[in-house]
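Hi F.,

I've been meaning to write this up properly since the lab meeting, where we talked about keeping a consistent format for the predictions we share between groups. The idea is simple: the sequence comes first, exactly as it goes in, then the structure tokens exactly as they come out, then a line or two of notes. No screenshots and no reformatting. I'm using this chain as the first example so we have something concrete to point to.
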Amino acid sequence: MKYNRFLSSVYSYLAMALMATLFAACTPDEMDGGLAPEPQSDIVQFTATSTTNNANIITFTNQTPGAFKAIWDFGNGTTAEGNQVNGSFPVEGSYTVRLTIFTKGGYASNTKTISIAETNVSMLNREDYNFLTGGADAANGKTWVIEKDAKGHLGVGDATAPNPSANWWAAGANEKAGVGLYDDEMNFKLQGFSYTYNNNGDTYSNKDYASGIGGTNASSDVTVNYTPPTNMSWSITEENGKKFLTISNGGFIGYYVGESKYQILALSENELYLMSSQKGVPGNAWFYRLAPKGYTRPVEAKPYKITDIYDNFDTDGNVTWKKETLMLNESYDNPAPVPINTSAKVAMYVKQDGQPYEFANMFTDFAHKLDLRQRHIFKLKVYIPGYNDYVTAAGEDWANKNLLKQVSVKLQDGTAAQPWANQAEVKQAVTVTDKWVELTFDFGPHAARTDLDRIVIQIGGEGNFIPGIFFLDDFRLE
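Output, unedited:
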């Protein structure tokens, strides 16, 4: 393993240090003497001596005449300043060490290669290394996978933002199932800084870079057959206060966007959160959330409590309505402002025509589980227009194929994979049209439930393909 990473940022530092040194570090007498001849690289000399107690710690001594500043780059991602400094090299291999000196005439650099015979594992006992690899005791390393059940396990955002985040797009739980991403395994070992990418034969790639790993460009992202290299390694470096994880030999992690270098946003025992740029698209930042293989993130239990629930659509209620294949106007002029409902504004509920809208509904989620033991009766007012088509039949064979003069209120566990599978539902038929009526929905038989945190309102029935327009108002928990 050969390390030769002279950070480009050092050059900028050197130029600034030169100017600062010439005008600040020199004494007035030195300035009066004028500038000396510009130094050449061959005058830059230094020694490298192993310390007595640890052969992996090298003492470097500047022996350049006339130098008043010495800056070192150890070739392993670390730097130092001073005429005599120590460099730590825990991993066996060859390192190109660069010394840059400053004199009255300018600055010059020279390099020397040092060899480290053996890895000193005790020097690798770093928190970030241990989190990533499992530490020195993990002979098989640590395997990470894309945390597919977490929202934002893959995402994209503005790379130029002060605090970049996946604010343009964030994948929902399991959104990328079937594309070859979720069975990928990324293994990191401390021994030899080894990295292994097991993709089970295929890799998910951004369309613009698929050809770089043996695929073909396409109009959308693609899954390509790909065999990863076997001689990859990893390294963690720090640049301007930020840590980066880099995979050698063109390696990458999961979804491929043409880059092998990732900024570490979070690294702990059970979380690896990374950000990379997109090759050739500097404004794009891609985000990757990984978890150890076999790890399941604990779900924090919601509190169980009772609260007021209301919305009269004239003023803001205390619920936020979401829609599923539904057109909803929450501030529509009352079509019949007469008793029993003289409100100026109501909600207009529009179910559209066709199979895609057979499950149209409005719903709201709560940050707590609903305690129904003392209060379990919901009421709402509804206006069923007579102009809807309640005669034509079109729909699923298991359903009533007619548009129904019916309101259903459902209580669900919104965190469940299939919230409807264990829902509590109360249906109320409406026998009159073109008139406001008030309906009561009593969930007393379900008052012992402690898992309910979602309210669903559905008008017109489900499973039918018939469009309909309805109005509702004054929804509340009694």
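Notes:
Residues 1-33 have pLDDT under 50 and may be disordered.
The domain at 2-120 is CATH 2.60.40.10 (Immunoglobulin-like).

If this format works for you, I'll send the rest the same way.

G.
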